[in-house]
Design a protein that fits this description.
By secondary structure, the chain is of the alpha+beta class. The chain has two domains: about 80 residues, N-terminal domain of TfIIb, CATH 2.20.25; about 70 residues, BFD-like [2Fe-2S]-binding domain (Arc Repressor Mutant, subunit A, Orthogonal Bundle). The chain is built from five helices and four strands. The protein has a four-stranded antiparallel β-sheet with strand order 1-2-3-4. Strand 2 and strand 3 form a beta hairpin. Helix 2 crosses helix 5. The termini are far apart.
């Protein structure tokens, strides 16, 4: 079993909202919204798709679009295949606005856990709990998180947003 080293992952990736695009832009862009996209493994895509769509996930290089206002989750630029939120078995936290809003797919934390702790305690222990579990080698972000990366960046952005909105 391969254990993902989440502590070595750059968790600073922000929301991949649209930016100006030039033809010589080396950044992968969503085929729908033209926002920045990040590479994701075909394995992750297959693990997220509803079973009747598995055969449509052709071999190729897939990317994940994290733009909250874009319905596309995965796309394969060369073959033109794309998959939207309704094509997945799970809710994609950056794409939904109604609870439960998942933020940690390995350990089951959603935005309401963070919101409730901040409301009652003035702070949240969720990032520390997740960090401890990651140090113990118990995460599987590469396959459980639809973005295929560690959730701590998104967790920290969520904590900051919810703390500011108090």
């Amino acid at each position: 079993m391969v254990v993902m080293n989440c502590s070595a992952i750059d968790t600073s990736l922000g929301n991949a909202n649209s930016e100006s695009v030039s033809n010589d832009d080396p950044i992968t862009r969503c085929t729908e919204c033209k926002g920045k996209a990040t590479p994701v493994s075909r394995k992750t895509v297959l693990l997220m798709l509803k079973s009747h769509l598995l055969e449509q996930a052709m071999p190729g290089s897939y990317s994940f679009c994290a733009a909250s206002d874009c319905d596309v989750v995965y796309f394969e630029k060369q073959g033109g295949h794309s998959f939207a939120t309704d094509d997945l078995r799970i809710r994609v936290g950056v794409k939904v606005k109604i609870d439960p809003i998942p933020v940690c797919y390995c350990f089951g934390f959603d935005e309401s856990h963070i919101r409730e702790e901040i409301s009652t305690l003035g702070e949240t222990t969720v990032p520390a709990k997740i960090s401890k579990l990651i140090r113990e080698g118990l995460c599987a972000c590469d396959t459980r998180n639809p973005a295929g990366v560690c959730c701590l960046g998104e967790i920290n952005r969520t904590v900051k947003r919810l703390s500011t909105n108090r």
